Amino acid sequence: MSTFLENQNWRYATKKFDATKKITTEDLNTLKEAIRLSSSSYGLQPYKVIIVENPELRANLQPAAWGQSQIVEASHLIIFANETNLDDLAIDDYIKNISQTRNTPIEALAGYGDFMKSKIISLSDEEKNIWTAKQTYLALGNLLNVAAELKIDATPMEGFVPAQVNEILGLDKLGLNATLIATLGYRHDEDATQHYKKVRKSNEDLFITL
Description:
This protein is of the alpha+beta class. The chain has two domains: 2-84 and 133-190, NADH Oxidase; 87-120, no CATH class. It is built from nine helices and four strands, in the order ααβααβαααβαβα.
């Protein structure tokens, strides 16, 4: 646990990446597995994770992300996109996955599937989109924590125009909406931000014990 806290103190939202340093395939696979194993409501994972490697595509995305240099300088660019048309079929597919993974008769899971549908599908489109968008933040948390364990720098970003990112990547046609961006790589020696002391609320200001 002490190592985990040390790594949390080490990490920060990197402002300038060293474009010459790349994440290894092994470490990238570890990061992807961390995302895949993230918790989500019901375990449904109502989102996709897009890894943008194409340099030209990343350059096209930079203006949509307020011109931030991390978009093009980081080793890897990750975009979390929530599903905007979550329907009965998505839940049915999830139930089939449970059945196959746990070798459980699908009939025994029918009640669970109906329960999820009653709670999720009955929501308005706006409510469903808010709910699915929230799930991406859980996956981002896992990514940030594991990246710190691997001493890989990461910058979570909400500073972008989702509609523009959706258009560039064609996400609308896939029933997806960009909710979060994470840039991954290694801090540049010239990034002065790495030397700043971490600023957080004190325990007294943050926690309430009842």
